[in-house]
Amino acid sequence: MGMAVGPRSGAVSEMNVVPLIDILLVLIIIFMVITPTTPHGLDALVPQPSPPDAKQDPALLAKTIVVVVGANGKVMINQDETTWDQLGPRLEDIFKQRAEKVAFVKGDDSVDFAEVARAIDIMRANGIDKVGLITAKVEAGQ
After folding, report:
1. Strand partners of residue 81
2. Closest by alpha carbon to 66, among 17, 104, 112?
3. Angle between helices 113-125 and 84-95 (to 10 degrees)
4. Where do the domains of the chain lie?
5. Residue 63 C-beta-side C-alpha neighbours within 13 Å
6. How far apart are alpha carbons 115 and 69 in whole angstroms?
7. What is the chain's Cα-based Rg?
8. By the 8 A CB rule, do 101 and 127 touch?
9. Among 38, 67, 107, 117, which residue has the least CB neighbours within 10 Å?
């Protein structure tokens, strides 16, 4: 409610801005509460391609574990063929002595993502902390 003091006579119309300020303060508080609860995506570990002229380090290649999900239900750990039932225990044996538990999954082009997700679930269930995906472009070095 506004009030004018002085020698003016007649009707005075002034805009009352107090309710507008109250509404703005309430909106600011609502946005401050909602903002921290915005959903965040999952962290993704993507292998970076090496420079074309760089030589591969044999020690690094020995440490890298790649689970290949092939067509017709074939599963391989690096170059060793395995089955879905043996995948979990074999990965657990491999990573038992390692401090860094990082592995990668590569799916064949003809494989549904459900099979790749199944491999990721098995890997996570057997103690692998970080699982990366290898795509055709990453493998080609692009």
Report:
1. 76
2. 104
3. 40
4. 58-140
5. 11
6. 7
7. 30
8. yes
9. 38
The reply to whether the predicted model has a pTM over 0.90 is no
State the Cα–Cα distance between residues 119 and 19, nearest whole angstrom.
Answer: 59
% of the chain at pLDDT higher than 70: 69
**How many DSSP H helices and E strands does the chain contain?**
5, 5
Residue 25, exposed/middle/buried by CB under 10 A (0-12, 13-18, 19+)? exposed
Residues 6+ apart with CB under 8 A from 87: 67, 75, 77, 119, 122
Instruction: Determine the Cα–Cα distance for residues 130 and 119; give it in Å rounded to an integer.
Output: 13
Fold of 58-140: Nucleotidyltransferase; domain 5 (3.30.420)
Q: Is 40 helix (H, G, I), strand (E, B) or coil?
A: coil
15-62 pLDDT tens trace: 788 888 999 999 999 988 887 766 667 676 666 666 666 666 565 556
135 and 116 Cβ atoms separated by less than 8 Å: no
How far the first Cα of the chain sits from its last, in Å, is 68
